[in-house]
Amino acid sequence: MRSVLAVCALVALPAAASAQKPEKKPMNPSHEEIALDKQSVVAAPLTHANLAVFPVLTTATGVKHVDYLVLDEGMKKKVVTVVEKGEGGDVNQLELRNSSDRPLFLMAGEVVIGGKQDRIIGKNTIVAPRTSEAVPVFCVEHGRWSGRKAEFSSAQALAHTELRKKASFSNQGEVWKEVSAKNAKRKLSSDTDTYRGVTQDGSVKKSIDGYDKAIRTQLAAFASKDRMVGFVVAMDGKVVAIETFGSPGLFHKFQDKLLRSYYVEAVDHEFDAARPPSAPAAAAITGFAEKARTAKRGVVLDKKSGKTMQFDEGDLKGSEVETTDGSSVYRGAYE
Question: Does residue 290 carry a pLDDT above 80?
Answer without folding.
Answer: yes
